[in-house]
């Protein structure tokens, strides 16, 4: 258990959190946690009908609406789709965000996924957590803090790596009771549903989200679940705070 009840989801694009972790966020919000959703980009490439500026404005608003359903805040670090870089300027923005939010927990995208944007966001989040207390990294207006947050990786798209191998989560959270909230949050991203229909041939946004949720649910004999892998490298927290906070809803596998 912790006295700091702030959690940050740092993904690549608007709707990453809604696909992979907002069920868990909804459960934590019920327990008094403050929710922050952040994306590296505003989703400026996800359109076939709007300009970059127009779709960015639309998708920021959709993301903020979604975060508001958990009484949360939305942050965008204003990178560009396809061009999320692991470089000094982008890292400084990620470190500054973590320092401003001061989360106890950070959830981020899978380090191995179908597109490099997700992988870069994952690496940026990892380093931002590690560097948040390094005093010689300067982020004016955002002071360093300790300790390093708990870091968890969300599922990859379709729950598989780049070679089609299924990814096995170490922590599975039963979200059956809050799937309605997760679905409503995903549906806030109306513009992305239209983009996927044109670009990927995917017509039903919600069905694909629920499919992975049901797959994870079957692993723990529940209706819906979300899977995570905890970063357990040197200096990162080693106990499982999700299990401590959510109890029997969390299954260690």
What is the CATH fold-level name?
Answer: Rossmann fold
- Number of DSSP strand runs: 8
Query: Rough shape?
Result: globular
Q: What is the second-level CATH architecture?
A: 3-Layer(aba) Sandwich
The biggest beta sheet reads: 8 strands, mixed
Terminal residue distance: 21 Å
Low-pLDDT segments: none
Structural class: alpha/beta
What's the helix-strand series?
Answer: EHHEHEHEHEEHHHEHE
CATH class: Alpha Beta
What Rg, in angstroms, do the CA atoms define? 17 Å
Total helix count?
A: 9
CATH superfamily: LmbE-like
Amount of beta strand: 15-25%
What level of helicity do the residues show? 25-40%
Describe the structure concisely:
With about 250 residues, the protein is α/β, with parallel strands linked by helices. It has 9 helices and 8 strands. It has helices at about 15-20, 20-30, 50-70, 90-100, 115-130, 180-185, 190-200, 205-220, 240-245, and strands at about 5-10, 35-40, 75, 105-110, 150-155, 170-175, 225-230, 250.
In words, what does this structure look like?
- With 253 residues, the chain is α/β, with parallel strands linked by helices.
- The protein has one domain: LmbE-like (Rossmann fold, 3-Layer(aba) Sandwich).
- Helix content is 40%, strand content 15%.
- The chain is built from nine helices and eight strands.
- It has helices at 16-20, 22-30, 52-68, 88-101, 116-131, 179-187, 190-199, 205-219, 241-246; strands at residues 6-11, 34-39, 73-76, 105-108, 150-154, 171-174, 225-230, 250-252.
- An eight-stranded mixed sheet has the order 3-2-1-4-5-7-6-8, with helices on both faces.
- The chain is globular, with a radius of gyration of 17 Å.
- The model has no long low-confidence stretch (mean pLDDT 95).
């Amino acid at each position: 258990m912790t006295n700091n009840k702030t959690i940050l989801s740092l993904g690549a694009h608007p709707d990453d959190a809604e696909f992979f972790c907002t069920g868990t966020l909804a459960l934590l919000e019920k327990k008094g946690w403050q929710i922050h959703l952040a994306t590296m980009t505003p989703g400026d490439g996800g359109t076939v009908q709007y300009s970059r500026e127009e779709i960015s404005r639309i998708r920021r608003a959709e993301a903020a609406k979604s975060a508001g359903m958990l009484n949360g805040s939305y942050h965008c670090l204003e990178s560009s789709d396809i061009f999320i870089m692991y470089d000094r300027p982008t890292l400084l923005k990620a470190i500054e965000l973590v320092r401003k939010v001061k989360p106890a927990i950070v959830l981020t995208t899978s380090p191995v996924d179908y597109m490099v944007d997700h992988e870069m966001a994952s690496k940026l989040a990892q380093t931002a957590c590690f560097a948040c207390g390094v005093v010689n990294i300067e982020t004016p207006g955002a002071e360093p803090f300790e300790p390093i947050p708990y870091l968890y990786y969300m599922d990859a798209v379709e729950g598989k790596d780049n070679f089609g191998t299924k990814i096995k989560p170490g922590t599975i959270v039963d979200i059956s009771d809050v799937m309605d909230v997760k679905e409503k949050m995903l549906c806030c991203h109306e513009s992305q549903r239209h983009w996927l229909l044109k670009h990927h041939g995917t017509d039903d946004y919600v069905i694909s989200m629920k499919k992975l949720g049901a797959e994870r649910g079957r692993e723990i004999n529940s209706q819906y679940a979300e899977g995570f892998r905890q970063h357990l490298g040197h200096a990162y927290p080693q106990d499982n705070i999700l299990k401590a906070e959510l109890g029997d809803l969390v299954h260690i596998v």
